Amino acid sequence: MSKLYNSEYREININYLLKIFSKYKLIIFLVVSLFTAASTYIATSIKPIYEAKALLKIGQYYELQRNGDVLGRPVDTSSELSREISFNFIDRGKFGSSIYKVLIEKGVDSYIELIARGDSLEGSEEIIRKVERYIVNMHDSIVKKHTKQYKVELKNINKKILVITAKQNEILAKDFYSDKGYESLLNTLQLMSSINTDLGIGYIGQIIERKEKLELLIKEPYKNNSKIVGTIQLNNDPTSPNKQIIVFFGLFIGLLLSLSFIFIREFLLDENK
Fold first, then answer.
1. In the predicted model, is pLDDT for residue 13 greater than 80?
2. Per-residue confidence at 155, pLDDT binned at 50, 70, 90?
3. 109: CB partners within 8 A, 6+ apart
4. Cis status of the peptide bond prior to 241, with omega within 30 of 0
5. Helix axes 204-219, 179-199, angle to 10 degrees
6. What phi and psi values does residue 104 have, to the nearest 5 degrees?
7. pLDDT for 164 beyond 50
8. Half-sphere exposure in the Cβ direction for 87 (13 Å, CA)
9. Which one of 55, 121, 138, 269 has the fewest beta carbons within 10 angstroms of its own beta carbon?
10. Which three-class secondary structure string do you get for the chain?
C-alpha cells in the first residue's frame, strides 16, 4: 500500500498505479470481455416485450324518465370498470392476456386508458381488442336489463290501450243518449283516469307517445357504444429488456471484479508479506 501512496507529497502514486494496470491489463481485458459477452448474450436471449396503449370511452344508453324525458346515462363508471378489468385481466389473467395497467383520470368518469404488454406488437394490440370486446359484451348485458324493463312496460301499455279502444268502440256502438250509454261513458272515463294515474301521465295521447318512445328505445337502446377512441398506440421499440443497461451492467461488474482482484493481490497480500 505504501508504494501506491506517496507520504511525502500526500498523493496517489500515479506512475505506480499505471504500472499495475499495465501488468494486469490482460486479466482486466479478459474478465471485462467475459462479463460483457455474457450480459450481451443474456440481453439478446430475453424475449422482448412490446407495449400497446388505447383510450376507451364508456358508452351511454337512453333512459326514459317517468315524465317522458329521454336522457343519456353512462353504462358504467371509470372506477368500477377499472376494477373489473384489473380483476379479470391483471389479477386473474383472463384469455392468457397481459393488461399491464388500467389508468383513470381524476374527475373524468367516461374514459379509461388501457396499457397492454405482449411478446409482439400484434400480440399486445390483440390484447387491447380482447378487452374491448369483453367490455362491449358486459355493457350489452347491462343495457339488456333496462331493455327488458321497457318491454314489460310496453306490454302493459299495449294491454291498457286495447282495453281503452275496446271500451271506446263499445260506447260508439251504443246510444249515448240512453241512461245505459251514459253510464258506460262514465265507466270508460273512470277507467282512463285509472290508467292515467298508473302511468303518471295526463292523456291517452301521452300514453301513445310513451309507447312510441319505448318502441324506439327497445330498438335503439344506445346513445353511443363503449369503444376505443382513435387508434391503438403501438411502440415499435420493446419496453423491455433494456439491452444497453444489461450490457453496461455486465461491463461494470467485470471491471469491478478485475480491479478488486488486482487490489487484493497487489496491496492487501503485499502488506502481509
1. no
2. very high
3. 58, 74, 77, 78, 79
4. yes
5. 40
6. -130, 145
7. yes
8. 6
9. 269
10. CCCCEECCCCEECHHHHHHHHHHCHHHHHHHHHHHHHHHHHHHHHCCCEEEEEEEEECCEEEEECCCCCEEEEECCCHHHHHHHHHHHHHHCCHHHCCEEEEECCCCCCCEEEEEEEECCHHHHHHHHHHHHHHHHHHHHHHHHHHHHHHHHHHHHHHHHHHHHHHHHHHHHCCCCCCHHHHHHHHHHHHHHHHHHHHHCCCCHHHHHHHHHHHHHHHHCCEEECCEEEEEEEECCCCCECCHHHHHHHHHHHHHHHHHHHHHHHHHHHHHHC
Q: What is the pTM of this model?
A: 0.64
Alpha-carbon distance 260 to 192, whole Å? 99
Report the residue count for the chain: 273
pLDDT at 75 over 50: yes
Q: How far apart are CA 104 and CA 222, in angstroms?
A: 23
The C-alpha cell that represents 155 in the structure block = 306490454
Among candidates 222, 219, 205, 224, which has minimal Cα distance to 68? 205
CA–CA dist 162, 211 (Å, integer): 13
| Burial of residue 60 (number of CB atoms within 10 Å: 0-12, 13-18, 19+) | buried
For residue 159, give the H/E element and its range.
helix 121-172
Average pLDDT for the chain: 80
The stretch 189-204 carries a mean pLDDT of 52
Task: Using alpha carbons, select from 229, 60, 69 the residue that is nearest to residue 143.
Answer: 60
Residue type, position 201, single letter: I
Least confident segment among 17-26, 53-62, 81-90: 17-26
Instruction: Please say whether the dihedral angle defined by the alpha carbons of residues 131, 135, 140 and 141, taken in this order, is positive or negative.
Output: positive
Tell me the average pLDDT across 226-235. 91
